[in-house]
Specification:
Keywords: Endonuclease, Hydrolase, Metal-binding, Nuclease
Distance between the termini: 43 Å
Family: Belongs to the RNase H family.
Strand order of the largest sheet: 1-2-3
Helix content: 40-55%
Shape: globular
CATH superfamily of the largest domain: Ribonuclease H-like superfamily/Ribonuclease H
CATH architecture of the largest domain: 2-Layer Sandwich
CATH class of the largest domain: Alpha Beta
GO molecular function: metal ion binding; nucleic acid binding; RNA-DNA hybrid ribonuclease activity
Structural class: alpha+beta
Mean pLDDT: 86
InterPro entries: RNase_H, RNaseH-like_sf, RNaseH_domain, RNaseH_sf
Protein name: ribonuclease H
Number of domains: 2
Radius of gyration: 20 Å
Number of strands: 5
Largest sheet: 3 strands, antiparallel
Order of helices and strands: EEEHEHHEHHHHHH
Low-confidence stretches: 26-30
Length: about 230
């Protein structure tokens, strides 16, 4: 069972945790506390990755697949319909589109590679959250541990033999082409320098201060940029 959670998502200073629950040990082991499986883990998603609940969910799935023996059939249970259905049903379409307009691209690619490296069957199962499912509830119990512990190192490297690059031309639309150009532009040095201009930072700081006065919360810079495009401000 895997799970992810984020504290203060959308605000300044969010922290994200992932959880993996394999179950209890079936063999006596003097190193185990209360007969817990040593593979049960609480993970702190490092700050260089996007701090969202969805990031925590996909990281948990990836780490679970990595921890399991490659030659044994496993079932990965998660209450994240986004990634259970995404990896099982939509992955081919995502790859055909070059992952354009798909969030957490690096994390999804790394998870896909780990799944394809396996030699045995991997079953992805969606479970309803907070419905009393023991494994899911146990994974939830590790939420605070993951968010509060020191940051973990998350390996997002991919082997080219197990992943596709580029975009299938038959899948390209005007909308996807625009998104691809926009994404490329946002990675340029000029764009990054523009976003870090002193005047820009001052205005963002003022907006955050006003938000604190009005509602007591400090929105992240990303949330502020997204709010500019909201229809209520059009």
């Amino acid at each position: 069972y895997t799970n992810g959670s984020c504290k203060n998502e959308g605000d300044s200073g969010p922290t994200t945790g992932s959880r993996i629950y394999f179950g209890t040990c079936i063999l006596p082991c003097c190193r185990c506390n209360d007969n817990d499986n040593q593979r049960n883990r609480a993970i702190r998603v490092p700050e260089n990755l996007k701090q969202t609940n969805q990031t925590g969910e996909i990281i948990a799935i990836k780490e679970c697949v990595m921890d399991a023996p490659k030659d044994i059939d496993i079932s990965v249970h998660s209450d994240s319909r986004t990634y259970i259905e995404g990896l099982a049903k939509h992955l081919q379409d995502w790859e055909d589109r070059g992952f354009i307009n798909v969030a957490n691209t690096a994390e999804i690619k790394a998870t896909t590679v780990r799944l394809r490296e396996r030699e045995a069957m991997t079953k992805l199962v969606w479970v309803k959250g907070h419905a009393g499912t023991e494994g899911n509830e146990k994974a939830d119990e590790l939420a605070n541990q993951g968010r509060e512990k020191p940051q973990d190192n998350i390996d997002l490297s991919v082997k080219q033999d197990f992943t596709l690059t580029g975009v299938k031309l038959s899948k390209v639309t005007q909308f996807l082409a625009y998104k691809a150009i926009r994404r490329k532009k946002m990675q340029t040095k000029t764009y990054r320098e523009r976003m870090n201009r002193r005047a820009t930072k001052i205005n963002l700081g003022r907006a955050q201060a006003c938000a604190v006065d009005l509602c007591g919360a400090t929105p992240s810079e990303e949330a502020l940029w997204k709010s500019i495009c909201h229809r209520d401000f059009g």
